[in-house]
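If you are new to this repository, start here. Below is one unmodified record pulled from the training split, so you can see the exact layout before writing a loader.
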Amino acid sequence: GNSGAVSKIMQNGDKLTFINEYNDQSGGYFIDNTTVIATTWEGGLKARLDDNARRIVWSNGSIWQRTKK
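And here is the target side for that same chain:
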């Protein structure tokens, strides 16, 4: 995505909601401890969690990085 743009992830139990920098949303879930899927993006866009879940590397090449609080 756009460098410096804000994306969000919300979790409710085992369900995830991904919101990208364009405010597009997708439901999703954990496939395993280090893999998630956004079910409506690109027919099921997978990502792996890196750096102790501080970074999400999407299979389309996008990277979401958690900012320090």
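Two things worth knowing about this chain: The longest strand covers residues 25-32. The two ends are 21 Å apart (CA to CA).
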